[in-house]
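Data availability (excerpt). The following record was deposited with the supplementary files.
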Amino acid sequence: MGRMSARAATCVVIDPAEAYRGKQGLNYVTGISAQSAGSTGLCMHLVTIPPGARATPHYHADHETAIYVLSGEAGMWYGEGLREHLIARPGQMLYIAAGVPHLPYNLSDTVPCTAVLARTDPNEQESVVPSDIPDPGHPASSR
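Predicted structure:
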């Protein structure tokens, strides 16, 4: 994806067709970003976590993330040492503060989990910082 040239502020419709593999280990559908729409303060993308799939532990330096779950259920380890856990279901919204380590995964071995995510980083992948925190696996209560 090439960078858009500087242009006057306007409105842009994006057809979410192009997919890419993120540093997090998941595939994303290109949405709003500096590259696609000339955004200067946010990005918004679609992610589908395949059945049984997991991201790699990571955090977003200096950028907040908001997620709206469309379908499926996602589990997420987060916080220091990835010791805290939550579950996000369809229709729920999830907020992740800047700099918080997290590891999202699909709770199901048969159904994909799809969500819209927005971040205060217009370049999407620039603030992704992979972490070497060990993956804690699945909590006993989620399976």
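Summary of structural features: Residues 19-134 form a domain with the Jelly Rolls fold (CATH 2.60.120.10).
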